[in-house]
Amino acid sequence: MSKTNQVESPSHYNQGNTEVIDIIEGFLPGTDFHIANAIKYILRHKHKEKPVEDLKKAIWYLERAISKM
What we know:
Layout: H1 20-27, H2 33-44, H3 51-67
Helix pairs in contact: 2-3
């Protein structure tokens, strides 16, 4: 299937050689949802319009993961 649309593959998903989802699924299988989302925001933050906002989102997800432990 072609990944040419903004739903499946927006430009910030494809920076570098590997998509974030492939890293999470391939290298971190079974990762908690909150941790996976934090990783996603951290890895993509430099390629978005508001990088600091994405880092704050990552912190929010990490704090939520910690509160559930």
